[in-house]
Model the fold of this input.
Amino acid sequence: MDLYLPIANLSVNALVIIGLGGVVGLLSGMFGVGGGFLTTPLLIFYGIPPTVAAASAASQVTGASVSGVFTHMARGTVDVRMGGVLVGGGVVGAGIGVLLFRLLQALGQIDTVIAILYVVLLGSIGGLMAKESIETLIAARTGRARTARKRRHHPLVAALPMRWRFYRSGLYISPLAPLLLGMMTGILTMLLGVGGGFIMVPAMIYLLGMGTQVVVGTSLFQILFVTMATTMIHAMTTKAVDLVLALLLLVGSVIGAQVGTRISMKMRPENLRVILALIVLVVAFRMALGLGWRPDEIYSVQVQ
Done:
């Protein structure tokens, strides 16, 4: 079932794209991650241009985040004030990101930069996840309980001026910390098409010192609005958003998330984390290979 993607300027098998979205949704349901950090690499492996893959993945993450935000709002697990600061930083970061995106496009280096950023981010995060998961498994088998980490914000965050109270998170810190964190996530969302949850959630816990009960909901709140702004900026500036591609991915991710949720209920959390870490490392390794492989056709001609 071939379908033409107008922005990507190529024909694809619609069922394959839905299947890729299903894989990402499956991971989302199994591991509790947005899966956006895997969407762009999978699309690139399939042959979608990296610029279109990144821009379209951001719009797919927007659609996938809506239901999660409403669920957490109903449960009261969203710190709206903290989320608002993160969204403000994210929108500013997206503006900076589009300038970087256009600059790298003009230099002809955007595809290479996207691949390198994915290798670095996925490799480092996958390595840390694997280390923590293996330590947890070893502790469980030897009967040694891991020492629980006390919740507190980083000393650098404590040194920042202008403190605000974030009642839902139980914090009294400077808004500059979440503002800068949001800016960094906005830049990554613009360049890579990720929601940023795989960076945002650990940063909110270990840097800001937020309680785990509000971290996921607040992160989704920020992701929803920042990816929405990013999609609009991409559509108006880079013209790289392919809505047909995004809709196919969204259909697959909705179906995959339902299946993944059922699977996750039957597996131990530490085993799930090990599997996720291995998947992330495999994708990072494949991206690294792509940077070194010589393509069959070194030069190509595109008709405008």
User: Anything to note?
Assistant: The mean pLDDT is 77.
